Amino acid sequence: MTQAEPASVRVDSWIWAVRLFKTRSAAATACRGGHVRVNGTAVKPAHQIKPGDEVRVRNAGIERIVVVVRLVAKRVGASIATQCFIDKSPPPPSPEIVAAMPKRDRGSGRPTKRERRETDRLLGRDPE
User: What is the per-residue pLDDT for 110?
Assistant: First the structure.
């Protein structure tokens, strides 16, 4: 027996159901904090999504860009969850770049001009 697919689903429910967040409350909090965008617009947790929408989620400093293929309202297994969206996220930076990035102790203040230039040079944002 199969259930009919809903026409639209709440965004917080969907990003939790496809395992982009561990809990639905964490997904709702991310929506309220402006970390979830649908088609380029920051949305509230109750925003309705439909197939074809692009959802951008920022979680733990990593941005995930997914396109909705299938709507699910209840949490599903990992193998089924991967069939519900197309992942268009950029690849993570290479380990060499991550190792070369300057590290700062948390709470040590703003970076100096020299540190900012080094970071920009490593990330390819050097204007020269």
Answer: 85
The amino acid sitting at 65 is: I
Secondary structure (DSSP) of the chain = --PPPPS-EEHHHHHHHTTSSSSHHHHHHHHHTT-EEETTEE--TT-EE-TT-EEEEEETTEEEEEEE-S--SS---HHHHGGGEEE-PPPPPPHHHHHHSPP--TTS-SPPHHHHHHHHHHHT----
- pLDDT tens, 30-77? 999 999 999 999 999 999 999 999 999 998 778 899 999 999 989 999
